[in-house]
Design brief:
By secondary structure, this protein is mainly alpha-helical. It has a domain of 234 residues: Serine Threonine Protein Phosphatase 5, Tetratricopeptide repeat (Alpha Horseshoe). The strands form five sheets. Strands 1-2 form a two-stranded antiparallel ribbon. A two-stranded antiparallel ribbon has the order 3-7. Strands 4-5 form a two-stranded antiparallel ribbon. Strand 8 and strand 9 form a beta hairpin. Helix 6 packs antiparallel against helix 7 and helix 8 crosses helix 12. It is globular.
Length: 494
């Protein structure tokens, strides 16, 4: 990874909402606590605190995994029937539920430190405003994940002095959580620049905050303000569709411009998560890789753990001649037809994280960045808002730009429902394995029925077990215990 910011970890870390040691990062336990009045004390500290707030972006692979597994595009290999994917024995003690809650609240706590304390630091006022804007973007990200995974959650919007403040805390409503997210992103947009110098690529821009806020509005079915934000991103001239879809994936693509269909150099990346091998490992390459013995092991090209595998349903969504299929649904590597020794009938993997021309992964240790928002996503969201507001007439422009890049014929002659279905399929094939599909299905209100309608044989158990309440994860029992029972459990998990 080149020309991207690194997120150095503070020697003082948070666990949950209050301060404690951070043993997953450091080998030595901190000897003092981070408290108001002692940190941050200068500009350098303020930057370090902000960088630390970034470090919890997908602080666990489980967040990335949960975003599309299981769905109609991905399933978990049979070697490990995780409760979150198979809907078996999914309880408040589930480790995945615990990790997602904990990591996101760690991010909230770090963002709160910046938002609360940096305004009092004697430093360049423009930089100070920007750092607070970055922290508000990050706090919004963490709460956006929390509210989509658990529903209403406790809002902690300030630095806490200790765990006693959590006793008696209750869950805020979904509306209240979204109100905070929208406020944070609105303020972030006003404070953040449109771009950064090369040595700070990877920080949140006003366009990243705008893309997230548009997605928030769409999740709330508030299409008009979403449409306005998406129009601003498109009209900014900062982004474009690269001509070669496959060039988007791999370390050599990180923060580089590539030619569009007319030969102009463009940027398709609006915001991505920064990984660096041996420093901040991404895990993704191994988790999506094959257990096929002929590949050569988990650290070989295409080798891995089969935790996220594409379904035959995804394969069926690709139209004949779709240029995206070659990298999205990989059936062989170096002439070896992929076959799973653990999961009957499985074989293909996604190729978006093979990183063939980058640094090979080292056992759950890769360095390829992962996209959160890219321009094709924005175009498809704009097609969706236009269709929901006034029908398909104005939606064709945006979906057909994406289809043209894929080598597909433009759509025409659709009614509103036909366009709605076309957009849903287009999002599946364009953005497969990029962390969108489950959240799309949830915001469309069709997650459970989609799981039940899958045809892949490896989705048999999820199809049989999924229940309506599985649209949310259980609140971890440890959080209920910390609150002394004041945090209520989600229905279905009592």
């Amino acid at each position: 990874m080149k020309n991207t910011i690194k997120y150095p970890f503070l020697l003082l870390c948070f666990s949950l909402l209050f301060f404690t040691s951070c043993e997953d990062i450091l080998t030595e336990k901190p000897t003092s606590f981070l408290t108001p009045g002692t940190f941050p004390g200068n500009e350098k500290d303020a930057i370090a605190a902000t960088n630390a707030a970034y470090s919890r972006l997908y602080g666990s692979i489980i967040s990335f995994y949960y975003a599309f597994t299981p769905s109609d595009i991905a399933f978990q290999g049979r070697h490990n029937t995780r409760p979150v994917s198979y809907f078996t024995n999914l309880t408040s003690l589930n480790g995945d539920a615990v990790v997602m809650w904990q990591k996101n609240y760690e991010g909230v706590a770090r963002a709160n430190t910046v938002i609360d304390l940096v305004p009092d630091v004697d430093m360049d006022p423009n930089l100070r405003s920007r750092l607070v804007g970055e922290a508000k973007f990050l706090r919004a990200f963490y709460y956006f994940e929390l509210v989509r995974v658990y529903g209403g959650v406790p809002i902690i919007d300030h630095v806490l002095s200790g765990p006693d403040e959590l006793i008696g805390v209750t869950r805020n409503t979904v509306d209240e959580v979204y109100a905070l997210i929208q406020q944070d992103l609105t303020e972030a947009i006003a404070a953040l620049p449109g771009s950064y110098s090369d040595n700070e690529k990877g920080r949140a821009t006003k366009w990243a905050a705008s893309a997230m806020l548009a997605k928030v509005y769409m999740t709330r079915h508030n299409f008009a303000p979403a449409n306005e934000l998406l129009q601003q991103i498109i009209n900014s001239g900062e982004f474009g569709l690269v001509a070669d879809y496959e060039s988007l994936f791999g370390e050599p693509a990180e923060h580089h411009l590539f030619p569009d269909k007319d030969g102009n150099l463009v940027n398709e990346n609006i915001f991505d998560i920064q990984w660096r091998q041996d420093e901040r490992a991404d895990y993704v390459q191994n988790w999506v890789g094959s257990r096929d013995l002929e590949v050569g092991g988990t650290t070989a090209l295409g080798g891995g753990w089969e935790n996220m595998l594409p379904t035959v349903d995804l394969e069926a969504m690709f139209e004949a001649g779709d240029k995206r299929k070659a990298i999205s649904y990989v059936t062989e590597i170096n002439g070896n037809l992929l076959e799973s020794p653990r999961t009957p009938g499985a074989g293909p993997i996604t190729g978006k994280y093979l990183n063939a021309s980058g640094t090979p992964p080292k056992t759950n240790n890769g360095g390829q960045n992962t996209y959160l928002y890219r321009y094709a996503d924005v175009l498809l969201l704009r097609a969706e808002t236009e269709n929901e507001i006034s029908g398909p007439a104005n939606a064709y422009t945006y979906i057909n730009l994406v289809r043209e890049r894929a080598g597909l014929a433009p759509l025409s002659g659709l009614d509103q429902e036909g366009m709605r279905q076309a957009i849903r399929r287009e999002r599946a094939v364009e953005l497969s394995f990029e962390g969108h599909r489950k959240y799309d299905l949830l915001r469309w209100g069709i997650f459970v029925q989609t799981i039940r309608n899958t045809t892949d044989p490896n989705m048999e158990i999820p199809r049989a077990n999924v229940q309506d309440f599985h649209v949310l994860m259980p609140v971890p029992q440890r959080e209920i215990d910390i609150s002394a029972g004041s945090i209520a459990q989600n229905p279905g998990y009592e």
